[in-house]
Design goal:
The protein is an all-alpha fold. Helix content is about 60%, strand content about 0%. The protein has a two-stranded antiparallel ribbon. Helix 7 crosses helix 18. The longest helix is centred in the last third of the chain and has 38 residues. The radius of gyration is 24 Å and the shape is globular.
């Protein structure tokens, strides 16, 4: 829900897109400028994937999933399966393959040198501060990433055509897919060492880059076999430069200027600079053009440009958005109802976009619950950030809690993913609207907490109003008696 600004100047350059109002400037991208970016992409990443597939060929289906020699070392379940079945082939890890062969192959060496060369604009102290920003506003950050960056992002009509062809946003797997994306963000923000060369966040970013190359290759191969499968002329190369810029933007700029303010959270200017710088570096590792995130101002103009020209929901958008809602309905650890999820979506994206995405219209009660949630977030975030000691404790605690719940937890991934190619585009595969998975337990979860926060907030405001009224009344009487 966008907060009204009575001081905003409206003139011929004022634009309103999906409930967000801004001033159009010469720095904003135009369709003529973005069109070539739909057909450019990470060529080096794709060339490196070709070399890796020759070094360690994918099994049978020619897809980069398994290999004996360069197996993923972590999941204990794999080793157990291997002991039971001598023919079992554990998942391969493309990052390990790249690392181990970079010194023996020209193409792999070029990619390895690129990602291990830290750009001159990277300031590690600033990157560390940017990581802390994510956890300082952890609750509203995860809420924004889920309901605005992901679900609202389904309004991007070109991007959803790629997502639909992977099958990764069916009701049964969308929640798991969401957790995998969150794991990448958590790894990139876990510590400074994690995002530096050789760290877990660094490695997962390279894996994501190679995964994007694999999806792109697969869809283009199928489109060559049957052009009607994917319209390259209309939608551009899958996972092109513009798509990658939009993805980094939804994790950074969209959070800063849309998701946070709509939840009552306004970052300080230095926090904005640091947070954008963090995701500029993540974009560098994943093969995304980074000049568009050189400054917060440039990042914001890109976000606004994409709102104007890229958000235009289609029937595919409706399908994927509703599947996300249905995959989260009544699921632990939040146990949120469908109406609560839709209220969150509408609060963050606005009614216009959510109507276009075909989401339901929840009643006033659920809007009130979201208001309570915002009160809760505001009270926690502003209180803790104002006291440095509490701020540090909160950041350290949330780093552990988020990882424990989303990655290691019973209701999370249960083990780290290495971003292997498991949502595989297929000639006969697309994503359809599905029934919700109602296996989640019916327990009081996030809705009870939000109601409590709302009641406490209303109670606090009522008490403050009464006290304020009595103070003003007393002062008025005292002033009147002094005059007499």
């Amino acid at each position: 829900m966008a907060w009204p600004n009575p001081f905003r100047v409206h003139d011929e350059n004022t634009r309103t897109c999906w409930g967000y109002t801004f001033q159009l400037t010469p720095e904003h991208l135009t369709p003529e400028k973005t069109q070539p970016m739909k057909f450019s992409y990470d060529v080096l990443g794709e060339e490196a994937l070709d070399r890796l597939n020759k070094i360690s060929p994918p099994p049978r289906s020619a897809l980069p999933r398994n290999s004996n020699k360069y197996a993923e070392a972590k999941p204990a379940s794999d080793s157990g399966k291997q002991a039971e079945d001598p023919d079992f082939t554990p998942k391969r890890d493309l990052y390990i393959l790249l690392r181990d062969h970079a010194h023996h192959d020209e193409t792999l060496g070029k990619l390895w040198r690129e990602v291990n060369t830290v750009p001159t604009w990277v300031d590690w102290e600033q990157i560390a501060r940017g990581q802390e920003v994510f956890y300082r506003y952890g609750g509203p950050a995860l809420t924004g990433l889920c309901f605005q960056s992901l679900l609202g992002g389904m309004g991007a009509n070109r991007v959803v055509e790629t997502l639909a062809r992977t099958g990764g946003f069916s009701t049964k797997v969308a929640r798991h897919r969401l957790f995998e994306t969150t794991q990448h963000i958590l790894q990139c923000t876990q510590s400074l060492q994690s995002i530096q060369p050789g760290g877990d966040g660094f490695a997962s970013s390279i894996r994501v880059r190679l995964l994007h190359a694999a999806v792109r290759q697969r869809i283009m191969k199928l489109a060559q076999q049957r052009p009607e499968y994917y319209n390259v002329e209309k939608w551009g190369i899958p996972i092109n430069d513009l798509d990658c810029i939009a993805t980094i933007g939804t994790f950074s700029a969209t959070l800063v200027w849309l998701a946070f303010p709509r939840q009552g959270i306004w970052l300080r200017q230095q926090e904005i600079i640091d947070y954008i710088a963090l995701f500029r570096y993540i974009g560098y590792l994943t093969g995304t053009p980074t000049d568009y995130f050189k400054t917060p101002e440039k990042a914001r103009t890109v976000m606004e440009s994409l709102l104007m020209y890229e958000i235009d929901p289609t029937e595919t958008s409706k399908t994927l958005a509703n599947n996300v809602i249905r995959s989260l309905e009544a699921q632990p650890p939040q146990y949120a109802s469908r109406a609560m999820l839709e209220a969150n979506s509408r609060w963050l994206n606005g009614n216009e976009l959510c109507d276009a995405l075909g989401l339901g219209r929840p009643g006033f009660y659920y809007w009130a619950l979201v208001a309570g949630q915002c009160i809760f977030f505001m009270a926690i975030c502003y209180t803790y950030r104002s006291i440095p000691y509490l701020d540090k404790r909160k950041i350290a605690a949330l780093r552990k809690i988020f990882w424990a719940v989303i990655v290691d937890g019973k209701y999370g991934l249960q083990q780290e993913t290495t971003f292997d190619f498991k949502y595989i585009p297929d000639m006969h595969k697309t994503t359809h609207l599905e029934d919700p998975d109602k296996s989640g337990l019916k327990q009081p979860g996030i809705e009870r907490r939000n109601l409590q926060a709302l009641l406490l907030g209303c109670g606090f405001l009522s008490i403050s109003a009464v006290i304020g009224y009595r103070i003003v009344s007393g002062l008025a009487k005292h002033f009147a008696y002094s005059i007499l």
